[in-house]
Design goal:
globular, single chain, 49% helix, 10 strands, eight-stranded mixed sheet, alpha/beta
């Protein structure tokens, strides 16, 4: 039995994702595909446009055999934590042979090798390129461009470095490869070149925002959570805010200084944005405040340095859905996995993020509310 895993958001799932799933199966010759998918909040620091169980069904319809939930502490975090948290879970399943992910800027036969070369250089030569990175950041360059320039100046031999490192998919691809090295996983990394003829998820979300289809699909957007976010900001002092993941003392104080200017999530993100902090970083910080995700969360390795492990293994992972034909896969996982797989949460262990999301969605669209521990997996 050959098993392939991938980490995803499908926010929302579109034809480009379907292409990726087909190519993943072809490239690895796998018998089963496991999707480890973000729950109701995603890595851009926003609520998902559609609830996780709707995105689960879309993933299964597109070819995934099993969909597991990536915990919110990982799904809303920066690339390093997002990637390592996901890689760690797939590794702990004990039977995943390959990790596939999207990449940009290379042919099918060389992009994986090129990214692996860059990832190895990044990990093995941090003392050479990181001081240069800090210099370029102080000059006002964006992080991706600054890192590419720093690595080039420090002697990274990879071709096309500047172009490759600024691609969003490649930044995550490098984080996945780095995570595999850090935790010593035997999973084989396989990059699937992105087909640029398909629309990006961000373009689809933008269209939905101004479309009547958003109401028909019960879509949610960051500004739907504005009142809840404002309450969190107003009810906490700067020290409390600084205890949340990713938030510096300086940002916490800026939030408190400008909280009376809060109009909605989007405008407040723009208000706090600086050259040093991207909008995505600010939005992630606001999400961590909303969901009360702390720096000392049990799934994060406290005080981790750049060269050390960043995450810990969760005690259980929730099964969001599976195909009937995946029963042999589930049997294999029961034997091999070091984490417990659960189809439902215990009644005394609700998913705070999921319940918050469901509350806003049901209020906006006048739908019945279902607690997270009562949600049933999707089976097709």
């Amino acid at each position: 039995m050959k098993i392939t895993g991938f980490i995803c958001e499908f926010n929302p799932l579109h034809d480009g994702h379907r292409h990726f799933i087909r190519k993943a199966e072809e490239a690895t010759g796998s018998d089963y595909l496991i999707a480890l998918m973000s729950g109701d909040f995603v890595q851009r620091g926003e609520p998902a446009i559609l609830p996780m169980y709707e995105r689960t069904k879309a993933a299964l319809d597109a070819g995934a055999d099993l969909v597991l939930q990536l915990p919110a502490v990982f799904s809303t975090a920066s690339a390093a934590y997002f990637a390592e948290g996901g890689v760690r879970i797939l590794h702990e399943l004990g039977c995943v042979d390959a990790l596939v992910f999207g990449a940009e800027g290379g042919a099918d036969d060389d992009i994986t090798e090129t990214l692996a070369e860059i990832a190895a250089y990044m990990e093995d030569n941090r003392d050479s390129w990181q001081p240069l990175l800090r210099t370029h950041l102080r000059e006002g360059k964006a992080y991706a461009a600054a890192r590419a320039e720093a690595m080039k100046e420090s002697g990274c031999p990879a071709d096309g470095l500047s172009d490759l490192l600024v691609k969003p998919n490649n930044q995550l691809a490098l984080a996945y490869m780095t995570a595999i090295r850090r935790i010593g996983s035997s999973m084989k990394p396989v990059a699937i070149p992105r087909d640029m003829t398909y629309a990006a998820s961000s373009d689809i979300r933008t269209k939905l925002r101004s479309s009547s289809a958003a109401k028909d699909q019960t879509c949610l957007f960051p500004d739907d959570f504005s009142l809840l976010l404002k309450d969190r900001l107003m009810s906490r002092n700067a020290a409390d805010l600084a205890g949340c993941l990713d938030i510096t003392q300086d940002l916490a104080q800026r939030i408190k200084n400008r909280q009376n200017e809060f109009e909605n999530w989007s405008s407040f993100t723009d208000l706090l944005h600086t050259k040093e902090m991207t909008r995505a970083r600010i939005s992630r910080c606001l999400t961590h405040i909303l969901l009360d995700i702390k720096k000392d969360d049990p799934l994060l390795a406290e005080g981790a340095a750049p060269k050390t492990i960043l995450t810990r293994t969760p005690s259980f992972v929730r099964i969001l859905g599976f195909r009937h034909k995946a029963q042999p896969l589930l049997a294999r996982l029961k034997e091999s996995s070091s984490v417990t797989l659960q189809t439902q949460l215990p009644p005394d262990l609700d998913d705070r993020a999921a319940d918050l999301y469901e509350s806003v969605r049901t209020d906006k669209y006048a739908l019945p509310f279902t607690e997270s521990h009562r949600q049933q997996p999707v089976i097709i």
